[in-house]
Amino acid sequence: MKASRILPLAIAALLAGCSSMSKSDVYTYRSDIGGPGMDLIVDNELDSGDKPSELIWLNALRVRAGAWKGRYYLEVRYEALPQTGWVEIGPGETLVLTVDGQPMKFGGIGSVNERKATDSTVVEHAIYEAKADDIRKIAKAKEVKVDIVGRLRTVHREFKTANIDKFKTFVLTYMGY
Hints:
Blueprint: H1 3-18, E1 26-29, E2 38-41, E3 45-46, E4 54-64, E5 70-80, E6 92-99, E7 102-108, E8 115-117, E9 122-130, H2 132-140, E10 144-149, E11 154-158, H3 161-174
Antiparallel strand pairs: 1-2, 2-4, 3-4, 4-5, 5-9, 6-7, 6-10, 8-9, 10-11
């Protein structure tokens, strides 16, 4: 496996483990065994209506490389009832954010190695590389629309004020404007 694919998979595994932690807007993870620290938004759920059959989270993270530098990622978590089924997020530019009317496309390896099914849910994770300026642009936005393009269908969501506020908190806490 290529080294460029190992880091996103490790990040996805870390984020999956974060789902059992206490809920907060942003979180810092420091490895006891010497790996780089990570700063993350761990629970940025996008509104799915009153009786959803699927839930979507769009989180941000920074893998630290010094006090203010790092590599940035966006993480999509999709969770649905078995009858709703998978999205099957493939490799490529499968995350499209429309930020104040301007499309931003993000590429990644998809969810093929990050799909799990239980009796009550199906879950997919996909990690996308981003730039610091991309994260800042989302944090400063008035409107953010999200399209997650899968092999089986595309899921659409929109940020509410609380979602933008979480990105603002992330930027102010870990990146600086």
